[in-house]
Each structure stands twice: as structure tokens, then as C-alpha cells.
Amino acid sequence: VQLVESGGGLVQAGGSLRLSCAASGSTFNINAMGWYRQAPGKQRELVAGITSGGGSTNYADSVKGRFTISRDNAKNTLYLLMNRLKPEDTAVYYCNAEASGINYWGKGTLVTVSS
Q1: Residue 85 CB: number of other CB atoms within 10 A?
Q2: What's the mean pLDDT in 70-79?
Q3: pLDDT category of residue 54 using cuts at 50, 70 and 90
Q4: Average pLDDT over residues 6-31
Q5: DSSP assignment, residue 88?
Q6: 70-73 long-range CB contacts below 8 Å, 24 or more apart?
Q7: Radius of gyration (Cα) for the chain, nearest Å?
Q8: Per-position DSSP letters for 29-96, written without gaps between them
């Protein structure tokens, strides 16, 4: 499974961005997917997760009510809609997919939120 993120960039506080993660390869094996982020000097943390069918999602407390995770299995794509962005959301955002017990990662996309 290969994962490629896109959609990052520079945005002002209060703005919005939508991240995408395109999956390829053995996508039929993909189960849960998620978005993680890593800010400079900090550990990677879970931002949001979604089950295989998209019926269940979970979010970090820091993004609840602002971020929405979704997936389009027909397009093998995972999304993260980020609204009301804050400077503390600045990080490299990584896509994660679990398939056949193995965790796959993308290379990340940088999100920078200016104050």
C-alpha cells in the first residue's frame, strides 16, 4: 500500500484547508485509516481516525468540532477537512492506513498556520 498526501500549505488563523491522501497498491486490504501530525520538537499524535466503512470516527480533543475526517473507498482517498485553523495546528500531517495488520504511512504534507 502506498499513501500520498496533498493539500497542505500556508493559511492564516481562522482559515480552512482540506487534506487528501490517495492510496494505491493493495487497497482492498485497507481497514482503518487516520491522520496524524507531528509538530517541531513534539511526538507524532493522532488527529482523527475512521473505520473501513466510514461509519465510525474519532478525533483528538484539540480538533473536535473543527476537523472532519472522511473517506471515499471508490476513489481510495482519505480526506481531512480542517476549519478554524489555529497556529498550534501547524505540523506535518501524515496519512496512515492499516492493512493486513501492517501500518502504512505517507511522507506527510506540511500545514502552516500563521497568526
Answers
A1: 22
A2: 97
A3: confident
A4: 96
A5: G
A6: 71/33
A7: 13
A8: GEEEEEEEEE-TTS--EEEEEE-TTS--EEE-TTTTTTEEEEEETTTTEEEEEE-S--GGG-EEEEEE
